[in-house]
């Protein structure tokens, strides 16, 4: 314990530091920057991503993979801050980044060292999912403006929240806690399916797809049956085909797929974005000074944020951004945790990050049907930032060294209480410090008397 | 150790690889979009555009001087109208040298293109526009041998980008030659004559008596309006075409076979009773309206349709082609407005015998009644037929279709809502003739 805990505290400080640093660097990306300063800034970004890659390569094969993960997060955070700064949303974005860190810390502290979940916690989680879904279903409404009919938002005292984002996190937790607990498995699967259907009913195709992927992973892992998972996927495709035939909303989205440049049905955002990226070129970009012209594109700061980054910096920056996401996901593959709970948390979290990036960016440039999901750390939005913070916390908690030991004393059902551990560490250090202090004082006194 | 661990690790690696694969896939998608950008987008983003020129290289659209008040509804430059050169020939107007790698920086001055049309020099078109003296209407003229379109004038005309004109409701954004059809009026009598000659060439010699009224079974008698009491008297085809005798043509039509007449009309490009034959639907890539008429027998209203006042709606392009074929041995070239598209490819509208008979009688009628009869039509016009179409709301459109052999040109002119003192289509034709190449 004494050896491992300081190694867990350090990453947090590093993340905090690097995000603050990158945010500061981002704030230097003034819209009036000349071309040379602009390219200098881009070079700095490129260097940072090379560092992340180097750290990643050095990490490979080692137990702890936090360094490259942190660098990746920093790069993404920096990219997010830059584009939101240029779009004029930096104040809100920084607040959301604080929420991100708070969520990451909270989830990390909750999950680090945890290898099992009590019934109370499990059913508390399940109850929260039901409550959130009910709130969303009965009180959810579409944002003003009439651009989308998806009823995903709760408006509470001027603040809008997307309960769907929180549901995803809770479902990961529930799924992970269901290993070899058949009753819990049933509850978890049922809730996944119910969330999926309710979100579809609310026209939130993106989150429904993401949750469906979670369900597939859970079935694949918990029942240890690829046949069943395959059956599920086949069933989903049938249901999807049925949905396309019977839902005007879904079929319109699918019909528009691949035809964005023709501006089908007056939908301009993807075409405008693709044009902005094209006119910027692969290497040049339209430049920071012209970022303001992007603001006319609908949802440019949320759904289209990654595209906006490409337009400003040139499509080449995609290499950096996608690389950072890949490194983040690749971490999970190297995890050697011995506990199914942390395994399952990690694999679902990775799946979620993958799905968000894939659906967001693929949709925004018309590679896949557009779903309007946010890009982690780049898009403006409190709920999605909290969600991604929780995912980060999950990934880091799974890296907690204690979970990797095969120490026979740590049994599968026994949790390591990280908070009291930290407290104990402090107390032990203090206890150790007192005799040391006494010792030092004695030496000083001895020297005094000798003199 | 959980036994799914290996599988799960493979799963995560697969996810990461899919994400990596998105990199080339995205770049391909973005490059693909480069070929889908419209010419208008280039203009919007760079403030520059390729130009559309007349046959002499004078800039109609995209240059420094704006001629949208003459050809704006043909050249176009906006979202609202799809049937314009800038939309339909977008591919030819896109600057060259644009790619996803260099973006806007790759566009140089030399990238912008020039699309040449076969239209008359812009100064001549301005002269023609002035000849309308502010009246609404249209003027289509083209070379019936080569297919080169000389004018596709539609007035009023406007710029799509001019403030307040985007939503104008007087049709200034539509090109009437392409997008409108008109009640044919007496110009239909040329078509009726063709139907008759196709069935029986000896009908060219037919003589009928006009007493001012032709009674039909179901009421709606055919009358010759505005003429002296007692009608036109006895006359042949030359006289009937010259004075536009309704009663003569009513009797001529009654001798014809209904189905055969419908067949001839379809061959001429008409949609008859909802069934179209060999209709011409486009001029190059530009859509055009199709002429239409309906009749089931030769009673009452149906009879009027073939005389030109009933349900008959004609496209001025169709009518000019029908006129041109009279001088072209029954064949008329397909019209083309973009230089290089005018290949001289022809469409057979009726038989050479009919064409020769028609041009013979029609020329004589034109000479006798339009040139020497005091209507002052230019001697360059060999065949012409006027028309007056009643709009039902008390207003009339004046029409003129004609052919000039010397200039190899067929034309159709419409002056809408004609009132005393307004220019006659013949005046506009006289203005047109010397301007033709």
Biggest sheet: strand arrangement of chain B = 5-4-21-20-19
Low-confidence runs of at least 5 consecutive residues of chain A: 1-10, 405-414
Using the coordinates shown, work out and report the CATH topology of the domain at 177-435 in chain B.
Answer: Beta-lactamase
Over all CA atoms, what is the radius of gyration of chain B? 27 Å
Could you characterize the architecture of this molecule?
- The complex is a heterodimer of chains A (451) and B (437).
- Chain A has 451 residues and is an all-alpha fold.
- Chain A folds into two domains: 4-416, no CATH class; 417-451.
- Chain A is built from 16 helices and two strands.
- Chain A has helices at 4-27, 35-59, 66-86, 90-111, 119-139, 163-176, 182-201, 205-222, 226-246, 248-256, 269-280, 305-313, 318-333, 340-364, 382-398, 418-450; strands at 154-156, 159-161.
- Chain A has a two-stranded antiparallel ribbon.
- In chain A, helix 5 packs antiparallel against helix 6 (163-176), helix 6 (163-176) runs antiparallel to helix 7 and helix 6 (163-176) runs parallel beside helix 15 (382-398).
- Chain A is globular, with a radius of gyration of 24 Å.
- Chain B is of the alpha+beta class.
- Chain B has a domain at 177-435: DD-peptidase/beta-lactamase superfamily (Beta-lactamase), CATH 3.40.710.
- Chain B is 36% helix and 18% strand.
- Chain B has 15 helices and 21 strands.
- Chain B has helices at 5-34, 39-46, 68-75, 85-88, 90-93, 122-131, 176-179, 188-199, 237-243, 246-254, 258-267, 300-307, 316-327, 352-371, 425-435; strands at 51-53, 59-61, 114-116, 137-143, 149-155, 182-183, 208-210, 213-214, 222-223, 233-235, 271-272, 275-276, 282-283, 286-287, 292-293, 313-314, 331-333, 346-348, 383-390, 396-404, 409-415.
- In chain B, strands 5-4-21-20-19 form a five-stranded antiparallel beta sheet, with helices on both faces. In chain B, strands 2-1-3 form a three-stranded mixed beta sheet, with helices on one face.
- In chain B, helix 9 (237-243) packs across helix 14 (352-371).
- The longest helix of chain B is centred in the first third of the chain and has 30 residues, at 5-34.
- Chain B is elongated.
- The chains are: A mainly alpha (451), B alpha+beta (437).
- Chains A and B meet through helix 8, helix 11, helix 13 and helix 14 of A and helix 1 of B.
């Amino acid at each position: 314990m004494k050896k491992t805990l300081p190694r867990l505290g350090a990453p947090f400080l590093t993340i905090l530091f690097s995000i603050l640093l990158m945010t500061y660097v981002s704030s230097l990306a003034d819209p009036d920057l000349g071309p040379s300063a602009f390219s200098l800034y881009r070079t700095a970004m490129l260097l940072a991503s090379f560092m992340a890659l180097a750290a990643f390569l050095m990490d490979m094969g080692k137990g702890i993979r936090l360094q490259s993960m942190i660098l990746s997060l920093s790069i993404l955070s920096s990219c997010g801050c830059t584009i939101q700064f240029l779009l004029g949303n930096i104040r809100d974005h920084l607040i959301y980044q604080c929420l991100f860190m708070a969520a990451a810390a909270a989830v990390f502290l909750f999950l680090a060292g945890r290898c099992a979940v009590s019934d109370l916690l499990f059913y508390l989680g399940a109850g929260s999912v039901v409550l959130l879904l009910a709130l969303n279903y009965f009180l959810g409404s579409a944002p003003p403006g009439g651009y989308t009919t998806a009823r995903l938002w709760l408006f509470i005292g001027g603040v809008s929240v997307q309960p769907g984002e929180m549901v995803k996190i809770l479902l990961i937790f529930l799924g992970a806690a269901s290993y070899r607990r058949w009753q819990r498995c049933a509850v978890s699967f049922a809730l996944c399916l119910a969330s999926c259907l309710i979100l579809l009913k609310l026209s939130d195709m993106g989150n429904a797809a993401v949750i469906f992927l979670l369900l597939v992973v859970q079935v694949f892992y918990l029942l240890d049956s690829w046949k069943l998972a395959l059956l599920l996927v086949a069933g989903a495709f049938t249901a999807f085909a049925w949905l396309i035939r019977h839902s005007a909303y879904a079929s319109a989205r699918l019909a528009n797929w691949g035809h964005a440049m023709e501006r089908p049905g007056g939908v301009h955002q993807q075409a405008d974005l693709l044009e902005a990226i094209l006119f910027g070129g692969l290497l040049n970009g339209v430049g920071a000074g012209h970022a303001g012209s992007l603001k006319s594109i609908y949802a440019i700061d949320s759904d289209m944020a990654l595209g906006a980054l490409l337009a400003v910096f040139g499509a080449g920056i995609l290499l950096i951004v996608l690389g950072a996401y890949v490194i983040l996901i690749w971490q999970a593959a190297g995890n050697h945790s011995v506990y199914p709970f942390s395994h399952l948390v990690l694999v679902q979290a990775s799946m979620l990050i993958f799905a968000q990036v894939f659906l967001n960016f693929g949709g925004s440039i018309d590679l896949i049907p557009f779903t309007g999901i946010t890009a982690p750390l780049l898009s403006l939005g409190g709920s999605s930032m909290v969600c991604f913070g929780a995912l980060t916390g999950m990934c880091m908690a799974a890296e907690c060294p204690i979970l990797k030991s095969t120490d026979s004393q740590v049994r599968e059902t026994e949790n390591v209480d990280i908070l009291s551990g930290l407290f104990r560490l402090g107390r032990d250090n203090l206890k150790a410090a007192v005799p040391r202090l006494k010792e030092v004082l004695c030496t000083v006194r001895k020297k005094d008397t000798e003199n | 150790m959980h036994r799914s661990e290996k599988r799960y690790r493979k799963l995560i690696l697969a996810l990461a690889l899919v994400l990596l694969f998105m990199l080339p896939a995205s770049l391909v998608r973005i490059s693909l979009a480069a070929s889908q950008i419209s010419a208008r987008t280039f203009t919007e983003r760079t403030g520059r555009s390729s130009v559309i020129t007349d046959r002499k290289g004078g800039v109609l659209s995209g240059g420094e001087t704006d001629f949208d008040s003459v050809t704006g509804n043909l050249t176009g430059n906006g979202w609202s109208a799809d049937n314009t050169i800038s939309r339909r020939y977008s591919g030819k107007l896109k600057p060259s040298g644009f790619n996803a790698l260099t973006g806007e920086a790759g566009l140089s001055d030399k990238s912008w293109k020039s699309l040449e049309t076969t239209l008359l020099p812009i100064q001549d078109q301005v002269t023609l526009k002035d000849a309308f003296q502010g009246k609404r209407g249209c003027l289509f003229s083209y070379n019936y041998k080569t297919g080169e379109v000389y004018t596709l004038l539609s007035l009023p005309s406007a710029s799509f980008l001019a403030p307040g004109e985007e939503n104008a409701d007087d049709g200034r954004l539509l090109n009437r030659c392409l997008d409108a059809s008109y009640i044919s009026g007496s110009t239909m009598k040329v078509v009726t004559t063709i139907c008759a000659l196709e069935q029986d060439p000896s009908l060219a010699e037919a003589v009928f008596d006009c007493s001012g009224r032709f009674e039909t079974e179901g009421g709606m008698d055919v009358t010759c309006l505005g003429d002296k009491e007692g009608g036109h008297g006895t006359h042949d085809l030359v006289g009937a075409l010259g004075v536009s005798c309704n009663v003569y043509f009513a009797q001529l039509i009654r001798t014809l076979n209904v189905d055969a007449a419908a067949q001839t009309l379809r061959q001429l490009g008409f949609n008859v009773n909802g069934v179209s034959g060999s209709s011409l639907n486009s001029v190059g890539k530009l859509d055009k309206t199709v002429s239409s008429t309906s009749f089931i027998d030769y009673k009452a209203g149906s009879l009027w349709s073939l005389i030109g006042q009933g349900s008959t709606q004609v496209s001025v392009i169709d009518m000019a082609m029908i006129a041109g074929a009279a001088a072209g041995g029954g064949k008329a070239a397909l019209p083309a407005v973009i230089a290089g598209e005018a290949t001289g490819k022809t469409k057979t509208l009726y038989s050479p015998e009919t064409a020769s008979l028609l041009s013979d009688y029609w020329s004589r009628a034109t000479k006798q009644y339009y040139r020497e009869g005091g209507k002052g039509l230019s001697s360059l016009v060999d065949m012409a037929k006027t028309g007056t179409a009643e709009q039902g709301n008390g207003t009339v459109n004046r029409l003129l279709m004609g052919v000039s052999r010397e200039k190899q040109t067929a034309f159709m002119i419409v002056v809408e809502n004609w009132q005393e003192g307004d220019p006659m289509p013949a005046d506009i034709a006289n203005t047109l003739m010397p301007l033709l190449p």
